[in-house]
Design brief:
The protein has 1955 residues and is an alpha/beta fold. It is built from 59 helices and 56 strands. The strands form 13 sheets. Strands 34, 35, 38, 39, 40, 41, 42, 43, 44, 45, 46 and 47 form a 12-stranded mixed sheet that branches. Strands 32-52-51-53-54-56-55-49 form an 8-stranded mixed sheet. Strand 39, helix 52 and strand 40 form a beta-alpha-beta unit.
Length: 1955
């Protein structure tokens, strides 16, 4: 590596740096060597000016060219000057100087003479990047296939003009008009051989392989094939073991961007792609395009001047010493690495023979150049198939024994992805920020491989993150600069990191690899990768790469184009990586093939040679013969014989229960979140869900095709009672009926689903909820299934749930439920992020949000248990098992590791069972972990009087292997006579559970089941059954496991192909609820345990419940801990020496065979001498773990052999005494803690231990999980953000990362943020069902009625969604129901008891003459006026004294009585109701846009107000036909009124006015259904300040806007203006229609005034068909408002009635009330008002309350008729907002809400009382309602002496009666003769009230007077005018005013006493 720079470095300096770097790398295994050239060149850097930087970058190409020529000059080269062309010749690009066309496209079909020895080749012109120029060249001057043997020089002919004999390429390039700016070279410009195809057309052939100048294989024959550049797993559908099929020519799944990239690169010269070719001093447009769009150029950074004489010409792309990446990036990587599931869906390309390849020769996986022969017997010699990862550049052909190697495109794809900058970084400008260079990529890869441990496998995600971090850190300054400031005219120096050149690369890579003890071997080759691969194969065959795991082959020539590949030669790594390339189905096929063909028999025979006593089967048979009688009897006795303890009631067994359906707080919270999301969809303006139109709920739950999951869901559904609650099924539910609601997603699902769809179409008013449980299972596209056609279930989810009918049905809501939502969170997902519901966190800032009596143990809790400070890790791996598997893997390279692992584990279990049964020699052939599991399993049922035991789950994903394991373990169990001790169950997803009859009977006894045919159908029903459950199937499908689960053995899961979902769902099997009430107990136990010197941590004491302290109290650490335990908590590999195993074997044998001896607690470290323990406990905590184990084991062995019975008994007794003490002191509030006895620690404590039920203990602890070492490492290691490494894996096998340039996930991410991360950074593969869900509009791709519920596995999602269905159903019923007031009429006893009836019960209308004879009933009967003053008449004075208070004073403010009523089809609705029929009515029809309404002023004068009143109408376009407008100016003239004589079935004559305030959402203004679709005129009367909000909610309603002076007025003002406007309009209409010849009296004079809370109307139907005239029956039913109004409007002589109303509905209505069909009494709430007759009777515009009573009295006193139709009633909805409640009385001074009592509403004039911000009239009315007793003390409860109220009715409270009289002449008043009044109320009396009028009435002595006027002046004038001082005595202090400020115009009072 000679230094050819002019400014030579000092030799001593170079040697010093080199020496230091090598020394540092040799000293340290994990320190990354500091790149030499970075140290050398970056010490003294100074920044160049911006101009220098720019010019240097432009000149780089020339420098490179010079260097290739060997130039030693350090000065910038002079630009190449071409010889000027001869005069008059052609200079057009693509033509020769003779003017002949040379372009391939033009002359491809012409016949071209080619002399012998010449070849046609294609030359590239920089000015015609899209064309090849055809030349004829002597083939001696061209290279052979290896890039060699080309003669120097040139000999060529022009095929255009035929000129021959060009001897110099410079001359030739001038002739063909190449117009070069650099020195012409044949190597650079002659690119392709040209060949004739079958049609005889000349086409582009293979690349000319010039020495060391391969052009990276990036050109393809056409853009159609370009997508093969980006090989995706699906397209490369060849497994590693087969190579017969050709790879697909084009890849349909390549992203669009890739195809564009490839197409663009296709026609770009290599110089443009990999270095800036300069054209006339500038980059050509095409080159700039490549640079900017592809970001594929590595623009070198400028270093600045060094202290030596000149700057170096090469820019070294190394890391600067100051760059943080040089240290940080590698320090991140010391965590254990794990294999990526590099390819999940279709393996990788095998190396293929040349003939088998399809597609262009330069495709990345296609070889080029000289083929490399793969040696024979490679697999036999190496014991592994090497995996070759294609890197950069060209890859040679492989031939020969290609079945023994595997070629993968994965690394190539990774490099490629890391070269393309993410869109997120494009803003910084592609010209400044360049992607990481290829040299740097390769160097970083070497660094990464160097620091991998021997048992680690490279992970592609790690590499991507390394590239990302390196790139970011090298461009931090630019990113910051672009983020902070506007780019300057001249960009800053782009980077300060020295680029690595291809020449330096091999040296730097070798330097990096020098410290790794030869685990990474670098091979550098000069010409092509072929020589490096050949050398590598040679080294492999010679055995020189035994220690080497990775071989990196680099071909780096001076031409900047590097070729590279990485070969995985480590046996373990190669096996894992090759197996990871198999798809799940290929994996199954491979294993099945090995089982069927008998290849595994070699493994079996090998095992049999291991056992010194001979074959295990012979041993078993011998044991069976010897012990047949003895063992079976002792075991069956221990299992079946009830001990004496049962009589005392062993608590462990009474606590047996299978948890039935109960809702936990969490589940309820999630159900409510789901409901709120449904409501938000319904409330949105998109009209996607009309909840108001649904009457009931129906549902279908879709589950994976697992029989157990299906039965489990049926079980939950049955016990939830949801079917009965939803009314879908009646009582006496059968299982067949329940099965209608759960569907297995198998081949037969289509039938059940069709029924579901038909139901949804036939029942549009039913909301169907389609629940997709375990929703991450089978997301295959129905169109694009890669699985074999036999698997019919594939793609079912897509075919059914995504069908058009489901998507378009407005009454189907789809709810996806899953623990692993990642696959549904891609860029193309159908689910809106707003429709995701995540399981809530149980803690927020340390506060327990939901008090649960159980603690959930999921993945994070399991990981937490592995941290130091927790005594028992729940996650473990078995190192002895792993070691044996690894050894056998090397011995049997052709067997799949799943086969080997399964056979080894079965062997371990078999040996462990034999060891426990007394064959102690077998413990050497198992591991400590397996021994622990087996021992606890077999002993568990003996520790419980009822025989309850533990469950062990043995997970074997591959079904054939599971069957083999079942058969083997079953046989071993039979031979050992353990068939009654525990069951072995084969759990197959496609079949149910099969268990022995003996165990079925046991379960039936425990569960108190009497059904003879009962069989367990779910794993939950195996609660307490001692068993090994062999759990098969490629993926768990949602099966839940019982609480007796103790061990979850996942050692056989497919660890080579891991994605996040796969990994987490395997661990999800162990997810578990633990009773959380045992916290305190654990704390006590911990101290006893840790301080007891005679108890050691052993391999099986984890089964004791006392050991969970560290787990339950997460984060608690013990002060005292033995060294063994401390080490144990960090190393979760519990393998120990063989001594321990031997000791445990003897112990087990002795304890098992003697029935009298108690069961042992410990296996390995059962007993120990006190001396030994002491010596251990005093040792340093840093002592080696193995050393301690051996010491302990030796001690244990000697003790056991001498004192076994005594010691074990003592130990047991001590342990039990401890247990007893603990249980006495601990609280037993847990449902499971009843197992701890409360008896004193006496001699019977030994019995306590014996009878402790293992199942109960298991339910108090999470299970222990055993994992493969690879998986354990990936789970327990964390990345830089603190997240488990598994989180950064690819989330799901059918999605892929959108870009390598993605940020790391953060530990602080919430579930929502994780979802958004995946939505941004993952895209579905073509096999994913969401792949085609793409739309540029983005928002359109979300389905509006699709929700996603995600939560940890086994946490209770099924219960949550069933609860959701329940509350959704209740809400729908609630939506179709309203609370209506249901109160009896009041003051019934005041009615005249008369036998006289004026009308017959069946009369439809009143008879006018008869009605005139009916007396007016003054008494108020409306229950809302229960606390109003009674109105007295002469008739009522007789019995008025009997009136008692119906409610106590404190009850007045209590809630009024309501009842819930189902809405009928004739109801009025608020704004939340949407249905198809009333869309147009509501104005949501597209024809009526929201803005299409006009504002019209309407003015009329009113003398009483003394001014003109101006009202405003807002009239929608659709309602303009109701009005009359002037023709020229479109001024509003009047509202059209019909004629009295008009009759129409579809028309309501009376305009309806609804005054409203504060109820824009809740007011019942939608009368479409109430009117039964009839045409009607409806006007909302609103206040000015509320106009906009009402218009927004009711765009198609006519608004009458009150003047602003009425903004604070009450309902009286609205009624007043409605009536006055209507009369004015009547006059206008009479005038208008009079001109048309219509009489004034023929115009319809009625209007309807309706409250905004009238919801439904009822009619009584009377049947008078009885024998006697008085007999009748009646029924009340809901009818439309149209029917009622049309009936009333058809009343004979209707215009003679002033007011017509109806009853308020009550459920307590009796026959007497409706016997008289019509009444002359008060009417309220919904009235028809004759504005013509009532012209001179006004509403009081000042009133807030009782204004209708006041008006009724005025109307009656004016001699007008008020008729109430008793057969009609109105229901009023209780609305909690708006109306009168909108008036709040508060202080005017302060804004703080202080409650003000009604007593403070008035004050003395001129006092300093706090003024109130409320209308004076409101204060007056409220004060009189609550405190009138202060003004009228004599009147309180004195009903025979009422207060005389003149011309008005004011509510003086229920304790005071009033008598209303009118001062108008000719008015009807009650006869007051004989009545003596206790008070006089004069309210704003007008000129009709005179002194003589008042003198007619008689008052009690001491009666009080109250005069109310607008001001003090009027008060005095009134006193004088009415001569009040004659009879009344006044005092100065008796004057009051309302508590208003002067500007608010208070009302004034004067009180006096009667003389």
């Amino acid at each position: 590596m000679g230094n050819s720079y002019a400014g030579q470095l000092k030799t001593t300096r170079f040697e010093e740096v080199l020496h230091n770097s090598i020394e540092a790398s040799l000293r340290s295994n994990n320190l990354v060597p500091r790149p030499i050239f970075s140290q050398l060149y970056l010490e003294a850097e100074q920044q160049l000016s911006s101009l220098e930087a720019g010019s240097r970058a432009d000149n780089e190409e020339e420098e490179e060219e010079e260097e290739e020529e060997g130039s030693e000059s350090s000065s910038p080269p002079v630009s190449y000057q071409m010889k000027p062309p001869p005069e008059g010749c052609c200079t057009t690009d693509g033509f020769c100087q003779a003017g002949k066309d040379l372009r391939l496209v033009s002359i491809s079909n012409e016949h071209i003479e080619v002399p012998s020895g010449f070849l046609l080749v294609g030359a590239k012109s920089p000015n015609l990047p899209d064309h090849l120029l055809v030349c004829a060249v002597d083939k001696r001057f061209l290279p052979d296939d290896n890039g060699r043997n080309a003669l120097l020089g040139f000999s060529g002919n022009c095929v255009g003009c035929g000129k021959k004999g060009f001897c110099y390429f410079t001359e030739f390039s001038n002739h063909i008009n190449l117009k070069l700016t650099t020195q012409p070279k044949k190597q650079k410009h002659l690119k392709y051989y040209l060949v004739r195809n079958a049609q005889g057309t000349l086409t582009k052939g293979s690349v000319i392989c010039w020495k060391g100048a391969e052009f990276r294989g990036r050109q393809t024959s056409s853009s159609t094939c370009s997508s093969t550049l980006f090989q995706l797993p699906e397209s490369s559908g060849l497994s590693g073991s087969t190579s017969s099929e050709p790879p697909p020519a084009a890849n349909p799944s390549a992203p669009a961007g890739t195809q564009q990239t490839a197409a663009a690169i296709d026609h770009v010269p290599s110089t443009a792609v990999f270095g800036s070719a300069v054209y006339n001093g500038k980059e050509s447009p095409k080159q700039q395009l490549v640079k900017n769009n592809l970001s594929a150029l590595t623009r070198p950074s400028v270093l600045g001047t060094l202290t030596n004489s000149g700057p170096p010409k090469k820019r070294h792309k190394g890391w600067s010493p100051e760059s943080p990446s040089s240290t940080e990036t590698w320090n991140l990587q010391h965590n254990p690495q794990v294999p990526n599931r590099i390819k999940n869906d279709g393996g990788s390309l095998s190396s293929l023979p040349h003939s088998a390849l399809v597609g262009p020769a330069s495709s990345p996986m296609v070889g080029s150049g000289e083929p490399v022969s793969v040696p024979d017997n490679l697999l036999k010699i190496c014991k592994a198939k090497p995996v070759i990862f294609k890197g950069h550049g060209n890859f040679p052909y492989l031939c020969g024994n290609i079945n023994d190697v595997i070629v993968s495109p994965l690394l190539y794809t990774c490099y490629r992805n890391s070269q393309s900058l993410s869109r997120a970084y494009e803003q910084y400008g592609a010209s400044t920020i360049q992607p990481i260079s290829e040299e740097m990529q390769l160097l970083l890869t070497v660094y990464y491989l160097v620091q991998l441990a021997s048992d680690q496998v490279p992970l592609i995600e790690d590499l991507e993150q390394i590239f990302m971090r390196s790139w970011r850190e090298s461009h931090l300054s630019e990113i910051r600069q672009y983020q902070q400031a506007v780019p300057q005219t001249f960009p800053q120096v782009p980077s300060q990191i020295a680029p690595v050149t291809s020449a330096q690369l091999p040296w730097l890579a070798g330097l990096a690899a020098s410290s790794c003890n030869d685990s990474v071997h670098i091979i550098e080759c000069s010409y092509s990768l072929a020589e490096g691969l050949s050398e590598m194969f040679k080294l492999l065959i010679e055995g020189k790469l035994i220690k080497t795991n990775y071989v990196v082959i680099i071909c780096a020539s001076r031409s900047r184009a590097i070729d590279s590949c990485i070969v995985i030669t480590g046996k373990y790594q190669a096996r894992v990586l090759s197996e990871s390339m198999l798809t799940p189905s290929d994996y199954q096929k491979e294993v099945n093939y090995q089982l069927v063909t008998g290849k595994v028999e070699t493994l079996g025979s090998f095992f049999s040679t291991l056992c010194p006593e001979g074959d295990i089967d012979l041993l078993l048979e011998k044991f069976y013969q010897e012990n047949q009688g003895h063992i079976s009897s002792s075991l069956s006795a221990s299992v079946n014989k009830p001990t004496a303890l049962n009589e005392t009631g062993a608590a462990a067994c009474t606590s047996y229960e299978i948890e039935r359906h109960q809702i936990r707080p969490f589940q309820l919270a999630v159900a409510q979140k789901l409901l709120s999301h449904i409501c938000s969809i319904a409330d949105s303006s998109t009209q996607n869900l009309d909840l108001g139109s649904f009457e009931k709920i129906d549902f279908l739950i879709c589950v994976p095709p697992s029989e157990v999951t299906y039965q489990q869901t049926l079980f939950h559904l049955w016990h939830s009672g949801i079917l009965l609650e939803l009314g879908l099924e009646k009582e006496h539910l059968t299982k067949q009926r329940v099965e209608q609601y759960v569907m297995k997603l198998d081949a037969e699902a289509q039938i059940k689903f069709k029924v579901f769809l038909q139901n949804s179409m036939q029942n549009p008013h039913t909301l169907f909820v389609l629940i997709h449980d375990h929703a991450h299972w089978d997301l295959m596209s129905a169109m694009h299934s890669l699985y074999p056609q036999t698997e019919l279930s594939t793609g079912v989810v897509d075919r059914l749930l995504n069908c058009r009918e489901v998507k378009e049905a407005p009454n189907i809501v789809t709810l996806h439920v899953t623990s692993f939502p990642y696959a549904l969170q891609t860029q193309h997902t159908l689910i809106s992020p707003y429709n995701e519901i995540h399981w809530p966190s149980s803690y927020s800032n340390g506060v327990d949000l939901y008090h649960e009596n159980k603690k959930y143990f999921g993945l994070s809790e399991f990981i937490e248990s592995t941290l130091s400070g927790h005594s028992i890790p729940l996650l473990r791996y078995d190192s002895s098992f792993e070691a044996m598997v690894m050894a056998l893997g090397k011995r049997f390279p052709r067997l799949h590791s799943a086969v080997i692992r399964t056979f080894v584990l079965i062997q371990h279990y078999s040996a462990a069972m034999m060891a426990v049964c007394g064959l102690s020699q077998m413990k050497n052939y198992t591991s400590v972990e397996t021994l622990e599991i087996t021992q606890n399993l077999i002993n568990s049922s003996r520790q419980c009087p009822s025989g309850h035991g533990l469950m062990v789950v043995l997970r074997i994903p591959c079904t054939p292997l599971a069957a083999v394991a079942y058969e083997r373990l079953y046989n071993v169990r039979e031979r050992l006579a353990l068939e009654d001790n525990f069951e072995i169950i084969l759990g197959n997803p496609n079949s149910g559970i099969t268990i022995g009859k003996h165990f079925v009977e046991q379960l039936k006894v425990w569960q108190k089941i009497e059904d003879v045919d009962w069989r367990p159908q779910t794993y939950l029903e195996l609660e307490g059954l001692p068993c090994i459950l062999i759990f098969s199937g490629m993926d768990p499908q949602g099966e839940s496991l019982p609480r007796s689960l103790r061990y979850c053995d996942l050692r056989l899961i497919n660890s080579s192909s891991l994605v996040r979902t796969t990994l987490e769902q395997e661990l999800g099997l162990a997810a578990y609820f633990v009773s959380s009430e045992i916290h305190t107990e654990k704390a006590v136990v911990n101290d006893v345990l840790e301080s007891d010197p005679e108890k050691l941590s052993s391999t099986d004491n984890e089964d004791e419940e006392i050991a969970t302290e560290g787990i339950i109290r997460a984060g608690s650490t013990s002060e005292k801990r033995s060294p063994v335990k401390r080490e144990r908590s960090c190393s979760h590999d519990s393998a120990s020496s063989s001594l321990s195993s031997k000791a445990s074997g003897k112990t087990l044998r002795s304890s098992f065979c003697s029935e009298s001896s108690p069961p042992l607690i410990a296996a390995g470290d059962t007993a120990k001498s006190p001396h030994q323990v002491q010596s251990n406990s005093t040792e340093e905590t840093t002592n080696n773990y193995e050393k301690q184990k051996q010491k302990v084991d030796k001690g244990a062995q000697t003790t056991i052999s001498k004192h076994l019975p005594l010691v074990t008994e003592q130990l047991d007794t001590k342990q039990n005494i401890k247990n007893a003490q603990i249980s006495v002191t601990s609280s037993s509030s847990s449902p499971f803690s009843s197992s701890s006895s409360s008896s004193a620690p006496t001699h019977n404590s030994f019995i306590l231990q014996t009878s402790q039920c293992s199942m109960t203990k298991a339910s108090k602890q999470p299970p222990i999980v055993f994992l493969p070492k690879l998986v354990y490492d990936i789970i327990t290691s964390t990345d830089s953000s603190g997240l488990p490494k598994s989180s950064s894996l690819l989330p799901y096998h059918s999605v892929m990362w959108a870009s390598s340039f993605r940020p790391l996930m953060s530990k602080m991410m919430t579930c929502t943020e994780q979802s958004l991360y995946y939505r941004q950074w993952t895209v579905p593969k073509p096999i994913h069902m969401d792949y085609n869900n793409r739309n540029e509009g983005r928002m359109d791709t979300f389905h509006p009625r699709r929700l996603l519920l995600s939560g940890p596995p086994q946490i209770g999602k099924t219960g949550a969604y069933l609860q959701f269905l329940s509350i959704l159903s209740r809400m729908l019923i609630r939506l179709t129901e309203v609370d209506v007031y249901d109160e009896e009429e009041i003051n019934i006893n005041m009615k005249e008891e008369s036998d006289q009836y004026y009308h017959q019960p069946g009369d439809l209308w009143p008879n006018l003459e008869t009605f005139k004879k009916m007396p007016f009933d003054y008494t108020i009967h409306d229950p809302k006026y229960e606390d109003a003053s009674l109105i007295c008449s002469k008739l009522q004075t007789i019995n008025s004294e009997d009136r008692s208070m119906s409610r106590r004073q404190e009850d007045m403010y209590t809630r009024r009585q309501t009842t819930r009523m189902r809405l009928s089809k004739y109801a009025a609705y608020n704004t939340y109701h949407h249905c198809e029929q009333c869309h147009q009515y509501m104005g949501f029809n597209p024809r009526y846009q929201l803005y299409e309404s006009t504002l019209h002023a309407f003015a009329f004068s009113y003398s009483m107000l003394g001014e003109e009143i101006q009202l405003h109408f807002i009239i929608p376009k659709s309602k303009e036909h109701h009005f009359v407008f002037s023709q020229p100016g479109r001024q509003l003239e009047s509202m059209r009124l019909p004629l009295v004589t008009d009759k129409s079935e579809d028309y309501i004559k009376s305009p309806t006015f609804t005054p409203t305030t504060g109820r824009h959402e809740h007011g019942l203004f939608n009368l479409y259904h109430a009117m039964d679709g009839a045409s009607h005129l409806h006007v909302l009367v609103v206040k000015e300040y509320e106009m906009a909000i009402y218009k927004k909610y009711w765009p198609n309603h006519i608004m009458l806007v009150l003047p602003s002076i009425f903004n604070s007025a009450g309902v009286g003002a609205a009624h007043f203006l409605i009536k006055e406007l209507s009369y004015h309009n009547l006059e206008l209409e009479r005038n208008r229609q009079e001109e048309l010849g219509i009489k004034p009296q023929d115009i319809w004079p009625f209007i309807v005034i309706s409250d905004d809370s009238c919801v439904m109307w009822n009619a009584v139907e009377v049947d008078c068909s009885g024998d006697r005239k008085s007999d009748y029956t009646w029924t009340e039913r809901n009818v439309s408002l149209k029917q009622i109004l049309q009936r009333i409007e058809a009343t004979p002589s209707v215009t003679h009635y002033a007011l017509i109303g109806m009853r308020k509905w009550s459920s307590k209505t009796n026959s007497a009330e409706i016997k008289e069909p019509f009444a002359c009494c008060h009417v309220h709430d919904f009235i028809m008002l004759n504005v013509d007759l009532t012209q001179n009777v006004q509403y009081n515009q000042n009133r807030f309350t009782c204004d209708d009573v006041d008006f009724n009295l005025r109307v009656h006193s004016a001699g007008l008729l008020i008729c109430r139709f008793n057969h009609f009633s109105v229901m009023k909805k209780q609305i909690a907002v708006g109306g009168q409640r909108s008036f709040h009385i508060k202080s005017k001074v302060s804004d703080t809400p202080v409650s003000i009592s009604p007593a403070q509403y008035i004050c003395a004039p001129d006092s300093k009382h706090t003024f109130l911000a409320a209308p004076a009239q409101l204060l007056l009315e409220k004060y009189l309602q609550y405190h009138s007793h202060r003004f009228f003390p004599l009147s309180v409860k004195n009903y025979s002496h009422p207060v005389l109220s003149v011309d008005c009715y004011l509510n003086l409270g229920p304790q005071i009666a009033v008598c209303y009289v009118s001062s108008r002449p000719h008015s009807l008043n009650i006869s007051s003769s004989g009545l003596t009044f206790s008070g006089l109320l004069l309210y704003l009396c007008d000129s009709f009230v005179v002194a003589s009028f008042l003198k007619k009435f008689h008052f009690l002595k001491g009666a009080t007077l109250c005069v109310i006027c607008q001001d003090r002046n009027s008060l005095r004038q009134t006193v004088v005018r009415l001569e009040l001082e004659d009879e009344w005595q006044f005092r100065l202090r008796d004057e009051f005013q309302t508590a208003n400020a002067k500007e608010d115009r208070p009302l004034f009072f004067l009180t006096g006493r009667h003389i």
